[in-house]
Amino acid sequence: MKFKTVKVGNLRTNCYIIFDEHNGEGVIVDPGDEAAKILPEIAELKVRYIIITHGHPDHFGALDELKKKTGAPLLMNSGDNWFFNPDRTIKEGDEISFGRVTLKVLQTPGHSRGGVCLYAPGYLFSGDTLFAGTCGRTDLPGGSAEAMAKSLKKLAQLPGETMVFPGHDEFTTIQQEKERGTLG
Ligand SMILES: [Zn+2]
């Protein structure tokens, strides 16, 4: 498994392009804006899915254009589907496979009702649930501090060496966030 990060839009959302370097199959996670910046990065890839970690505009701004260009189906949790319908909903324990890569879905509500993280051994793509040194805000519609606390407890169960790639800013690890007290 390999991945690239493209920082897009005013909020510098991390759009991740995760792929199997052996057969070029991949996914786009959180195409927040600036399709023109994302397209060259997927030129050599066969995009199998577009995944949205949660339904906030800074995570799906370039969705329409990328769907048109790739024909890939949209996957997201049904908790955030108030703005449009995904082609397939994803929930806790689901596996998203492309090439030899499998991403496991962890449902992590709190920042929004339908927030998910994507896990492969060693890697967590955490959307706006967990950042380096803090968690996502819980005061937006559908947010819940209680749900967030439970979600962070769930993430604390992952191996400490797991590298965390959030929806904004820089990466961290589960161990580091445990030590900082971010995970409760
Ligand atoms: Zn958000």
Under CATH, the topology is which? Metallo-beta-lactamase, Chain A
**CATH architecture type:** 4-Layer Sandwich
Count of the domains: 1
- Level-1 CATH class name: Alpha Beta
- Molecules bound to protein: zinc ion
Nearest-angstrom radius of gyration? 15 Å
Instruction: Estimate what percentage of residues fall within beta strands.
Output: 25-35%
- Provide the CATH superfamily: Ribonuclease Z/Hydroxyacylglutathione hydrolase-like
The major beta sheet can be summarized as: 6 strands, mixed
Instruction: Indicate the structural class.
Output: alpha/beta
Notes on the protein architecture:
The chain has 184 residues and is α/β, with parallel strands linked by helices. The protein has a single domain (2-180), classed as Metallo-beta-lactamase, Chain A. Helix content is 19%, strand content 33%. The chain is built from 5 helices and 14 strands. The protein has helices spanning 35-38, 57-60, 63-70, 145-156, 174-180, and strands at 2-8, 13-19, 25-29, 46-51, 74-76, 88-89, 95-98, 101-107, 116-120, 123-127, 130-131, 134-135, 163-166, 172-173. The strands form 3 sheets. Strands 1-2-3-4-5-6 form a 6-stranded mixed β-sheet, covered by helices on one side. Strands 7-8-9-10-13-14 form a 6-stranded mixed β-sheet. Strands 11-12 form a two-stranded antiparallel sheet. The longest helix is centred in the last third of the chain and has 12 residues, at 145-156. The model has no long low-confidence stretch (mean pLDDT 97). The structure holds zinc ion.
